[in-house]
What does this fold into?
Amino acid sequence: MLSPEDAMSKENQGSFYTLELHVSPGGARRGDCFVVNDLAAVKEILSRDLGSGSGVYLVGWYGESILLSVYVPGEARRTIDLLPFIRLVIPGYPVLTFEDGECSFDFEEDEAAHEEEETLSYKLFGDAIRPSEVIVDWEAANVPPLPAPILPAGTEVRVHSNYLGHDREAIYGHNDFEGGDDRGGRYLDMLG
It folds into this structure.
């Protein structure tokens, strides 16, 4: 494992993005952090996650944070809250938006008005329904390109975890800051 000083050295790193998907402890918990070296990987991970019923459930019901940070040799240069730029199209429901950190769909009202099996949260949690379209306004999010040098795959870096509230080591690909160092998992195959 790298020392914090080595992990932060400019000679040891290149530019990279982190995509954090996290839910603070409560009814649900999540602390996933993806370290990647191109925006296409960020887009694919986010599309896969929000394309699942459980991904929508976490962001809609539990207020999951979706944060993209841009690192230029070891330093967080900019963090973008992606929620205001996301729209989810679910057949038979109004388009879900997340302006001001709030979901436009009222899950509590839906639960009060319907039998449990008919609620959107029930359908999402069981993956019985999924978004037909995940729309992210990347132009409005204004994500800067990564300057050279670019972080090579397999590199260990030091990142700031908004979920944990402090810096820690992470490696290229998937890092599970909630459940432990699950370095790999369901997303790593696409990261090359």
